[in-house]
């Protein structure tokens, strides 16, 4: 993906273009798996934690990435596909965590099955993480 394309993505999301945003965006586009803040810290020592944190937050708020909750208490982020708008994320796809390499992937074309909850409750989001062995490790 060219820098020009990345700049366009940022522009389309009304984000100011900074080196850090370009680099982080590029990293997401090139990565098959979801990324955490510490993955990015390991990749870019030219940016401090706060800068990376703010970059992730601005991507999150503008619908470029989504947060993938996991039970380890560390947040991982996956790239959003066309359908997301600021404050209107649609993520009902399944996430997969590999128990061998630890990578988390978005299965964008696999929807979370309908869940049934008692009357009187309203679902806001459903998160499903399936774990096992990824295709790379199998
Ligand atoms: Zn794996
Ligand atoms: Zn995802």
- Please describe the biggest sheet, giving its number of strands, its sense, and whether it closes into a barrel: 3 strands, antiparallel
Write the CATH architecture name: Orthogonal Bundle
Q: Find the structural class using helix and strand composition.
A: alpha+beta
Query: By CATH's scheme, which homologous superfamily applies?
Result: Winged helix-like DNA-binding domain superfamily/Winged helix DNA-binding domain
Number of helices: 4
CATH topology, by name, is: Arc Repressor Mutant, subunit A
| Distinct ligands | zinc ion
Low-confidence stretches: none
H/E element order: HHEHHEEEEE
CATH class membership: Mainly Alpha
Whole-number mean pLDDT? 89
The share of residues in extended strands comes to 15-25%
Which sequence of strands runs across the widest sheet? 1-3-2
Give an overview in words.
With 138 residues, the protein is an alpha+beta fold. Helix content is 30%, strand content 20%. It contains 4 helices and 6 strands; from the N terminus they run ααβααβββββ. It has a 3-stranded antiparallel sheet with strand order 1-3-2. A 3-stranded mixed sheet has the order 5-4-6, with no helix packed on it. It is globular, with a radius of gyration of 16 Å. The model has no long low-confidence stretch (mean pLDDT 89). The site of one zinc ion has 7 residues, from strand 2 and strand 4.
